[in-house]
Amino acid sequence: SKRASFLSALNQLTRALLRKYDCGVRPVQTWTSPTLIYIDLILQSVLDVDGKTQQVTTSIWYRQIWTDEFLVWDPEEFDGITEISLSSDTIWVPDLIISEFVDVGESPAIPYVYVNSSGMVKNNKPIQVVSACDLEMYAFPFDKHSCPLTFRSWLHSVTEVNLTLWRSADEIANNQKSFMDDGEWELLSVPSLFQTHLQSKSQTLFCATCQVLIRRRPLLYVVSLVIPSIFLMVVDIISFYLPPNSGTRITFKTSVLLGYTVFRVNLMDEMPATAIRTPLIGVFFAVCMALLVLNLAISILVVKLLHHNEKEVKEMSVSACLLDKYGSSSQTFLESNFTSVKTLDDVDQCGAPDEDLLSLSEPQESSPQLERLLQEVVALRLYLQDGERDDSAQSEWVALCCKVDLILFRVYLFILVVYTSTLVILWASWSSI
């Protein structure tokens, strides 16, 4: 019977409150009095950040509190009931919207509000907000964003509806207990700001703006994107220590370049899609690719120099040697037909006495067999000397190519150091903004 009397009192109270209630009229006794609406929000999670469409999806626990002067009763007249729940469709509800709203989220429908005996109405509901935000992905993955949520009345001006915070601004800004802190994004703060907005010449709206400051956790992207790229660049630098005259250097560098290309293609989905400008990490990957190509081009150039035309190398080296020893007379010497042994001795030993040399053009009482044998010995000696000259010239050319390779390696290292320093400075400056 007690429960029945309570239900009867609840029904009587509900009917008494809604009997002459008009949900289309602002609930004030004096129409010139503005309705003060308290708002409160708790950010629970950041569900999605889309840099291409410039949208942020957040989950928020949202609360509206206002006083309805037509929903007041004496609890003693209704069996001590101090608070009841009413359908939100049957009473006046503020027409507050979020100005940055761009899409309807998957928010659960909460059809009831709580009303106490003094007329205070509490409308608590979770909402999924898909809002527009100016997302600057340039410092990805060390980026921070500030996304505003502006609450305002859709129709009522400041003379009809005023907004204020239910809790203090510091409590809202530093309340991170309910935020899901194990995701990709870290909540820094939610500062709030109140201002008036001129809708037209005769109407001014009251706005409450909450800035959601979030920061991306970069560890996942550093491990999966940056560190593998650094490893491949280090391996590419170490490949300079392979001998330039071996055939493995170009093959190795080509394999590194191909592996880096496959790595980039497989991780394209991890990169942020933005239509404003290329993130720094995109520049990082592009320059790494360019440096790998430059390194390969340097190796190809060194190998080309190393395997230069052997005839040209020989002529350049022999000519340089003869010019150093004999001056201009060496050209006449090279054009001779090696008719005497004196010519050979002059190439081998500069300044040998003429009387110690045997002449082939003027043999002294020698048989044809002995003369033929002597010619073969001279030809063999010429062949051996030419081989020695070729080996010496080739060794000098290899040494020269190694010096060129070392110079190009140092230039490559300088470019890499300058590029890395610039990138680190840019990342540090943008992440601190």
From TrEMBL:
Function: Forms serotonin (5-hydroxytryptamine/5-HT3)-activated cation-selective channel complexes, which when activated cause fast, depolarizing responses in neurons.
UniProt cross-references to Pfam families, sorted A to Z: Neur_chan_LBD (PF02931), Neur_chan_memb (PF02932)
Keyword annotations of the record: Cell membrane, Disulfide bond, Glycoprotein, Ion channel, Ion transport, Ligand-gated ion channel, Membrane, Postsynaptic cell membrane, Receptor, Signal, Synapse, Transmembrane, Transmembrane helix, Transport
GO CC annotations, alphabetized: postsynaptic membrane
Cell compartments where the protein resides: Postsynaptic cell membrane
Any coiled-coil regions, as ranges: none
Protein name, per record: Uncharacterized protein
Domain Neurotransmitter-gated ion-channel ligand-binding, chain residue ranges per copy: 12-218
Bilayer topology annotation: Multi-pass membrane protein
Highest rank taxon of the organism: Eukaryota
Primary subcellular site in the record, as a coarse category: membrane
Gene Ontology MF terms: extracellular ligand-gated monoatomic ion channel activity; transmembrane signaling receptor activity
Gene encoding the protein: HTR3B
Domain Neurotransmitter-gated ion-channel transmembrane intervals: 225-317
UniProt cross-references to Gene3D superfamilies, sorted A to Z: Neurotransmitter-gated ion-channel ligand-binding domain, Neurotransmitter-gated ion-channel transmembrane domain
